[in-house]
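Pasting two entries for a bug report.
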Amino acid sequence: MKKIRVYLFFLLGVSIATSCVQSNIKNGRYNNDATLELGEIEESQLFADKFDDFTIVPLENNREGLLSDVYKMQVTDSGMYFFDNASYPLLLLYSHEGDFKNRIGELGHKKSEYTNISNFSAHATGDAIDILDFNSLKTFSSNGSFISSITLEDEYGWDDLAFVPGGVMLATYHRGYDFLVSMFDSTFENRKNLLPVSSELIKGAMWGLNRLQCVGEKVCFLDPCNSTFYLFDINHLDDIHRIVLKSPNMLTEKVARENDGYLNGGYNFVQDFVYDGESILGTMSYEGRLCDFEIDLEKNAITLGNHIGFNYSFLCYYDRSEERR
């Protein structure tokens, strides 16, 4: 039996709660096209009640591995990776028990070093880590040593990446490009473009480093400008499941184009989420307050609830599969 965990990087604490809303399934160019109407927030329940086990893991107070401004966390079989971007970018590895293990790579201008960390993704086993360094993709081992570097031919403005079976997926949250997501094979010689969009630029961007998430052969991508989730199967990339979140005050691409100050305009939008292959769980700004949500992908239904308890910074899903052991 596999053990499944959701990790939270937090400041104080959390909750998840529910309230049923109406779902409307449409026939479109997507294999499964759902529009989920957001309704009233009716109920509340503790986040911890959704899991069999809930544990707080304190991190070792190590001088070499001090964290101060964490942008992203990813948990793998090898441990917990943290991207810290305080005075300069760092990628650090801790054990599952919170012990500091080592630093991944070094800052510099050599081929074996990185000048910046735009984002990173670790293999599920944690034995390989890709760092997105502007238009370069640099691979390191879990002990921090350099493996390889690939220069991406087009400076596409990639914002996110994820290891997937047979290759790597790259994504952008911005507009001004022809596609939001592209799938590359392991050699980067073959590429399949997904989710075509208008190339017209939108001022500003919905910032975030975990909009593209992979669980086994399933992938979930959030287009934050349209409050829309896209679900892929690596073996059937043309069969896309689209889920659009809708409310009278929902952030959309049209709103973002017409309102330069949309980021501070009080619109409803997804702040963060975690995908476990069966559901999408996260937080959103909803009607002027922080709200928890859960999307049941089998039923195409969403539940909403007040956010109570401690305030976590972001979520991370980890599937501790016995098949990899």
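Entry 2 (this is the one that rendered wrong in the viewer):
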Amino acid sequence: SLIIPANTLSSGGYEVANSCRFENGSSDHLIRTISSTGNRKTFTYSVWVKRSQINTYMPIMSDVTDSGNDFFTFSFENGNQFQIYSQLSGPEVIYLKTNRLFRDVSAFYHILVAVDTTQSTESNRVKIFINGLQETSFSNANYPDQNTNLAINISGEKQIVGGMYDPVNNYFDGYIAEAVFIDGTSYSPTDVGEFDEDSGIFKPIDVSGLTFGTNGFYLDF
């Protein structure tokens, strides 16, 4: 097990006792098939991750249909940017890639992906928060149309932690902890974490009381 006092912050308050080690080259991943279609417009992903290598593509979580043409995934890219990418029946519907690079292999990053395609302002339809702060500088910024049903939460579709595609052929290399998927609610960072009053570093809080919806999950490992 691994104690995660939030980005290697000293212990105190809520502590995460466990994480899961995913090792690239060993085909480590978790996968399930969705049995009932949930909300395809509004959802949240929250996860703590620690990279074990850089300069390589690392999918963190994905949704993908059997055809492989429809998917939603977020990842670290070969150039160490963070990216969200989604296709629907072939065409691209989301493509967000940060200008900021994420090359720290000594600490955990907290990642929150909050989606609500019902929003009238396009930049509010997909939000990325890393360590509690919103990313707003992108080298690519393609947002979905309003009220788009995304390639996610579909009955028969695969949800993958630590990989991409089905059969999985790209893998995450590192540690994943407190992996959360929320079906039907777009949460903010303060729903899953808080800033330490002394250091200002973002740290975890108990997420077990959140509303997870039809297909939501909480993996505490």
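Dev reply: Rendering is fixed now. As a check, the viewer should reflect this: The first strand starts at residue 20 and ends at 22.
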